């Protein structure tokens, strides 16, 4: 059957106008936030029900057509890129919160529900969905589950995995499975739900998920602290964490701050210039807790760890301090950064960052390097900025040559080559630095069970 005939047949599976093949749509829906691979899908299909998703998957199996899931397309690993004529399955029209149960503290969502939409719906009921990141206004629940999204609150609330009570999936074989049925306790063998979390759509499509909710935190208060050097960041973390229950602990370099301040959207936190900054957040539910935070700050200054700092006194100031951290990714995107999203256990972070920094400085003396990340959970974001005059492909090629040394260091520290961005196509060739050959063989065997014909997001996590 010709491609044109296949597309005509695909159109019969969904509502009229829900299959697009125009160049603009193929370009927009065939990519995510990565710029490494050119999008080249054959069509974009927009199902509106689980049954339509199932019909699409069965059609793809029958005709050996590869499928790529598409959510908010905010990923940074090319897991949602269709570069080889695949059909993109977009969940934009499966975007309803089907039920919000205040007693169980759960929200049952279709895969296309936007993260911010879920957060606001929970807020209306006096509840809280704590998984949060800069792309919350466009990322979707299905994509968050597919990549086990983390973000800025992991130190307190954990990853997306911690908040999935249950889900419905359409497997690569076209079967509908209901996993865990939203239970808190369920000791009935393998928890297949966990296999689909972080699987990047390679086993099947998450079509519905029940997400757990939490009580709303009270009087969130942020502090931005300027440190004398990076070695001071970890004792500051320990000092605050030993006395307060932190909801976040982030860090960024002076270069990251300079890029954000250069936009003119937010003022500098204080006049003192520092090489590194820490942003921490906690619930100041009493005056005693606020005073405790100030006492810890004074202790850190006395120890020479902190040079200056500020604590939010209003909700607006809280938001402004967070902008210093949350605007970094969007701001530096102008320079087409080469990103590494790496992690180690928290205690190893200082030595690990020094080793990685030495590799970067030795090999990229003329490139600008921006560090930031979720230091409270051991996750560092290394961003190498492309010089304006350099061709993109040449720049990526130069950066890729050093990956071997960076990932060898990650392996030496028993770390991860991808802390929260996933593997996709950008990290698939480096998977062996974090996973053993036996583990990779087991992962491939699991994929074969759920996706026997290999149609689900092929070429992601491991090469075809």
From TrEMBL:
Its cofactor is FAD. Keywords: FAD, Flavoprotein, Oxidoreductase. Residues 37-216 form the FAD-binding PCMH-type domain. Transmembrane segments: none annotated. Belongs to the FAD-binding oxidoreductase/transferase type 4 family. PANTHER family: D-2-HYDROXYGLUTARATE DEHYDROGENASE, MITOCHONDRIAL. This is FAD-binding oxidoreductase. It comes from Serpens gallinarum.
């Amino acid at each position: 059957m010709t491609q044109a005939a296949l597309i005509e047949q695909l159109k019969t599976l969904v509502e009229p106008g829900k299959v697009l093949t125009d160049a603009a749509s193929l370009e927009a829906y065939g990519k995510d936030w990565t710029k490494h691979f050119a999008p080249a899908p054959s069509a974009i299909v927009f199902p509106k029900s689980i049954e339509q998703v199932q019909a699409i998957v069965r059609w793809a199996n029958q005709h050996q057509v590869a499928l790529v899931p598409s959510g908010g397309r905010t990923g940074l690993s090319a897991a949602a890129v269709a570069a080889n004529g695949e059909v993109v399955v977009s969940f934009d029209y499966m975007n309803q919160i089907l039920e919000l149960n205040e007693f169980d503290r759960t929200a049952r969502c279709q895969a296309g529900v936007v993260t911010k939409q879920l957060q606001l719906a929970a807020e209306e009921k006096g509840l809280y969905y704590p998984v949060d990141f800069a792309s919350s206004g466009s990322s979707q629940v299905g994509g968050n589950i597919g990549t086990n999204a983390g973000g800025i609150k992991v130190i307190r609330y954990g990853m997306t995995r911690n908040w999935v009570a249950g889900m419905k999936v359409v497997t690569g074989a076209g079967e509908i499975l209901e996993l865990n049925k939203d239970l808190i306790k369920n000791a009935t063998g393998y928890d297949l739900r966990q296999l689909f979390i972080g699987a990047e759509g390679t086993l099947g499509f998450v079509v519905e998920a029940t997400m757990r909710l939490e009580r709303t935190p009270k009087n969130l208060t942020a502090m931005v602290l300027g440190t004398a050097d990076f070695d001071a960041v970890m004792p500051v973390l320990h000092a605050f964490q030993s006395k307060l229950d932190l909801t976040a602990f982030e860090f960024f370099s002076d270069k990251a701050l300079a890029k954000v301040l250069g936009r003119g959207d937010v003022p500098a936190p204080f006049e003192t210039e520092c090489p590194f900054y820490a942003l921490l957040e906690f619930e100041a539910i009493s005056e005693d807790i606020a005073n405790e935070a100030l006492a810890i700050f004074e202790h850190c200054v006395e120890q020479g760890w902190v040079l200056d700092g500020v604590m939010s006194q209003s909700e607006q100031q809280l938001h402004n301090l967070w902008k210093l951290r949350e605007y970094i990714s969007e701001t530096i995107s102008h320079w087409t950064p080469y990103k590494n999203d790496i992690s180690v256990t928290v205690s190893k972070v200082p030595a690990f960052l020094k080793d990685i920094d030495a590799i970067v400085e030795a090999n990229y003396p003329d490139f600008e390097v921006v560090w930031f990340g979720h230091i409270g959970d051991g996750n560092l974001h290394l961003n190498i900025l492309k010089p304006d005059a350099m061709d993109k492909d040449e720049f990526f090629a130069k950066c890729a040559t050093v990956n071997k040394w960076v990932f060898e260091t990650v392996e030496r520290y028993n770390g991860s080559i991808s802390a929260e961005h996933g593997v996709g196509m950008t990290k698939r060739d480096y998977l062996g630095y974090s996973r053993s050959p036996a583990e990779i063989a087991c992962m491939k065997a699991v994929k074969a069970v759920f996706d026997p014909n290999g149609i689900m997001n092929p070429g992601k996590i491991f090469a075809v």
